[in-house]
């Protein structure tokens, strides 16, 4: 009996140390934007550790705080100060497109630059929505719910494929507004530049939680694919600085 338990524990340990995916933060770069903002580039990689092609839902070039990540396609991030996790809603927020990021960099939202860029963003979103609707109808879709159609194709267009043992690199671009005090409900956190601050990424890959955004046929294809994966995959921690 003792031998069986030892073999089971060894097997479990080996399995736990060899997940299907490995997530690794490679570097973090900072770029001053203006007096009240700094741009951060978080460079990371996802490695397929198996001999099979893997696929999963993910928008890899944006991120979201752990406290706001109950239903998301983005990598989740956690902030640690002096080794202690702080469940703050910030200091970073998600920018799904380059235009979204550029708009947030503009200090004067009443300027012509800001107005023109906002108009461009709205036109682009409208065009994507109508293209998705047209594509859906051409393929025999029956629903007339524009929002549902938009989010269904957004989901299906954001499937990452990794060949056996393949590694893909990604860059998350985001901003810090230089606000050191961050509130989360009744809790308040402070980013102290004298502390050791680290960031960690988590791929919280889901399938069932998105079932309302998919057709029965979509869900069936996913269920029939044993290599369409779900689960949590955590990166290394990397030091990150918040300097004035």
Describe this structure in a few short sentences.
The protein is of the alpha+beta class and 244 residues long.
Description of the structure:
This protein is α+β, with helices and mostly antiparallel strands and 244 residues long. Helix content is 29%, strand content 33%. The chain contains five helices and twelve strands. The protein has helices spanning 2-17, 98-105, 112-138, 146-156, 216-224, and strands spanning 21-34, 37-48, 54-57, 64-65, 76-81, 84-86, 159-162, 167-176, 181-184, 187-190, 197-205, 231-239. Strands 4, 5, 6, 11 and 12 form a five-stranded mixed beta sheet that branches. A hairpin with a 2-residue loop joins strand 5 (76-81) and strand 6. Helix 2 packs antiparallel against helix 3 and helix 3 (112-138) packs across helix 4 (146-156). The termini are far apart.
């Amino acid at each position: 009996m003792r031998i069986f338990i030892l073999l089971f524990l060894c097997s479990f340990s080996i399995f736990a140390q060899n997940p299907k995916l490995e997530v690794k933060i490679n570097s973090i770069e900072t770029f001053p934007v203006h007096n009240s903002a700094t741009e951060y580039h978080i460079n990371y990689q996802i490695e397929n550790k198996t001999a099979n092609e893997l696929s999963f839902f993910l928008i890899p070039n944006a991120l979201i705080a752990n406290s706001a990540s109950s239903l998301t396609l983005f990598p989740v991030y956690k902030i640690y100060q002096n080794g202690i996790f702080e469940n703050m809603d910030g200091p970073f927020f998600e920018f799904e497109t380059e235009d979204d990021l550029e708009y947030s960099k503009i200090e004067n939202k009443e300027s012509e630059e800001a107005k023109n860029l906002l108009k461009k963003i709205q036109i682009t979103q409208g065009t994507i929505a109508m293209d998705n609707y047209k594509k859906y109808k051409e393929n025999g879709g029956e629903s007339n719910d524009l929002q549902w159609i938009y989010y269904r194709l957004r989901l299906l267009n954001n499937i990452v494929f990794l060949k056996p043992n393949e590694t893909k690199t990604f860059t998350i671009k985001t901003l810090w507004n230089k606000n050191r005090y961050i509130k989360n409900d009744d809790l308040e956190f402070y980013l102290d530049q004298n502390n050791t601050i680290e960031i960690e990424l988590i791929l919280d890959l889901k399938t069932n939680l998105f079932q309302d955004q998919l057709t029965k046929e979509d869900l069936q294809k996913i269920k029939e694919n044993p290599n369409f994966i779900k689960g949590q995959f955590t990166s290394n921690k990397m030091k990150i600085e918040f300097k004035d």
